[in-house]
Amino acid sequence: MRISRGVPGPLRATAVTAGVTAALGLFAFPAAAGDSGMAPVPQQGISWAQCVAGPPPPGWPQEEWDKLWAGMDCATVTVPMNYRKPADGKLSIAISRRKAKDPAKRQGVLLLNPGGPGGDGLLMPSYLEPEAIATSYDLIGFDPRGVGRSTQLLCEVGYWEPPRTRPTDDQFAPITAAAREREAACQRAGGGLRPFVNTANAARDMDVIREALGEKKINYLGFSYGTYLGAVYGSLFPGKLNRSVLDSSMHPDWLYYEQSKQQSVAAKQSVDAWVKWVAERDKTYHLGSSAAQVNAALDEMGTRLAAQPIPWPDNPDFPRIDRNTFDQLLGFWAAPRPNWALLAELVVKIKESIGGTLPADAGKAMAALGKALIPETFNDTFPTVTCEADWPADLNVYYEQMRLFRERYPYGRGANAAEPTECTFRSFTPPERLADLKRKGYPTGLVIQAEFDPATQYDGGPAMAAKLNDNLISISDEGSHGIYGRNACATEKINSYLIGGVLPGSRTTCAGAPRPDVPAGGVAAQSGRSLEQRAVELIKIHKLDRTF
User: Fold this and answer.
1) Phi/psi of residue 350, nearest 5 degrees
2) Within a 10 A sphere around the Cβ of 54, how many other Cβ atoms?
3) Cα 253 to the chain's mean position, in Å?
């Protein structure tokens, strides 16, 4: 689950909906899948065709964009907007496919989801094509309802307060007013569709995809929020799920306010670990020889940056480096352990530049890391799906938490993770309760979790594994989000399970990416590469720019 409260893009169009309002009771209808909540849906075939790339996202070369779509098939399936009343209108779900590279070894289909909620999934087969699973499975991607090339849920643009890690009490009211206005803006444009854009319906859409593919069962690999989606699918359609991998799991009991807050808890944990590492290398970085001294140095820098923000060289559109930006970069950039030495050097450059100008090379390195490591925003599906669970209605709950977080957990998103959202002022009634997660009727799966996951805090992994009685692979001293294809040990175990059906131990640990080779108590060797070159190399080697 990736959350960012950044400023959204240009004015978005009004959603195309089937014009049905909310306020229905619970689903309780017999269907082939048992407690799936589905009325019968007519069977349909799929007409595959070569995917059309279309224009690339801003800043993405057309040639590289075209390569991602080349050789991949695309199609659409239709699903009911409201599974209780299929006649009320239909939605289009875009799907993609890369066939198994070795037909003789094909084991069926593997549905993929990148998370979000609101992440586009059509390119997932291309992103995972280099992995071993592409030999044995047809890789199936899809844009969930409300997203991308599926029927979109779009909202009118509301007002966004800048994300603040340490807001003052005087700023609570405008933050709250902005959230209230965004919810009203989203309801004006997408009111008819919004109640039906939820996890249970996305899982039901997955089963329509399964049936259209002609498969008795699917296999599943989901990341981040996609872990919760996979758990819901298995709970609603236990007889239709075979092998499942939930990578970087959400906590089954943290939907969704607590899950949001735990991102700042995870950021503080990573910063604390980095601070201790820096203190052991005071002869190199000169920020203090104890954690207390380094923390004091960081706090002094933050105070000075609040009074004298540093312009970002060669990037006039970037925010100035003030205390807020400094909190964010510490929280987001301390998570990947291989990044620690570069982060320490950049902090030293910032310290030396207060009252002056940041060196151009440091600015370029920070711009590269910022592009890769600052969480992206998602479309308007995010503030709809996350409203399927109840959020606190008492604003004092948020204000108390924001005060706590600005003091104890100010890094990364800081107190921004505890503030009111659109869901605080939810303007629709969810048509059903959250699914009761259970694994009854499908095989034991895997849950994968990094010890310092910055987006779905570690405790979510053991909790989800316990909830589903799945096996857990933990990645020690690792700050990545999305492990498959990044960590060789975990990737090998996941491949053994998905391809060979071989489960690892019920609780298994893999080592995370190594920390930088900077000797404790000594002086680091000087690198001949620029800070920007080192940043780009780190991003490439450790896949820090991967969005799932």
Assistant:
1) -65, -45
2) 10
3) 17
What 3-state class would DSSP assign to 385? helix
| 3 state SS of 140 | strand
Two tokens, residue 278: 């820096």
Gap between the Cα atoms of 519 and 534, Å rounded: 18
Neighbouring-strand partners of residue 92: 78
In angstroms, the CA 125 to CA 140 distance is 6
Token pair belonging to 499:
């391809």
pLDDT digits (tens, 9 = 90+) for 112-169: 999 999 999 999 999 999 999 999 999 999 999 999 999 999 888 888 899 999 999 9
pLDDT, tens digit, 9 for 90 and up, residues 211-234: 999 999 999 999 999 999 999 999
Q: Which two tokens stand for residue 374?
A: 């600052």
| Tokens matching residue 352 | 């030396």
Helices (H), ranges, 88-195: 124-127, 133-136, 169-190
Contact between 424 and 449 (Cβ < 8 Å): no
21/195 Cα distance (integer angstroms)? 8
Q: Give the closest residue to 230 by CA, choosing from 238, 220, 215, 240.
A: 220
Strand partners, 241: 218
Picking from 401, 257, 267, 285, the residue whose alpha carbon sits closest to that of residue 326 is 267
Which element (helix H / strand E) includes 437?
none
Nearest to 270 by CA among 329, 324, 334: 334
List the 471-476 sheet strands across, edge first: 49-50, 73-80, 90-98, 138-142, 109-113, 218-223, 241-247, 446-450, 471-476, 507-511
